């Protein structure tokens, strides 16, 4: 009665799709994420973030922790179940606000409201990933103008609010790009971010692995492995003040079988060799 056990399936244990299989991109498709991702007029696209696999795993971890807290209160365990489709839908909450409130037809790339302005702007030297994301909405527009040295446009009614800027997207893009294209994405990021603007250099996955800030926060770590050789790994994003997480090498195949059977299952150590001889375990 005190056992907590968990299961993940593509569509869960109930419902008309419960017998169907799923995986990462299928979950994105069935959770609404794929239809919302892409460019206007283009086909649905998956996101590179593992919201179907890793996102579902995070939901499961939260569920298990909740079940453990419930067990602390009443001593009873329970079954924790998460469907991949459900997990993606939950992560789509921001985009689904528009569907729930307006009922407008889906338009790829539109999250809460339509905008004629792109979220990213080209930077020097003009490479494949040389872009910076800049949030131009609200009063941040005037801050961006000040940082760019375009104080002459502050208060200009042609660009005074978001609606006005949406009517002149080509002009706004040129104003911003004339400045960003002369600087690297990191230079633009530091100048704007230090002024309080919501922005970010567009980092490639490879740049993520060498990013100074992520390395300083132990999000990219070196793992020692005498069997397979040392390698880099992604660190733990959850920082605990009293019990920091150390990323260690992955265990070898069947490395802890004996320990688990002995200490967790309670099997007599003398029975383990015969199980291995019979091929029950390796």
From TrEMBL:
Pfam families: CoA_transf_3. The keyword Metal-binding does not apply. The keyword Phosphoprotein does not apply. Keywords: Transferase. InterPro entries: CoA-transferase_III_domain, CoA-Trfase_fam_III, CoA-Trfase_III_dom_1_sf. GO terms for molecular function: CoA-transferase activity. This is Formyl-CoA transferase.
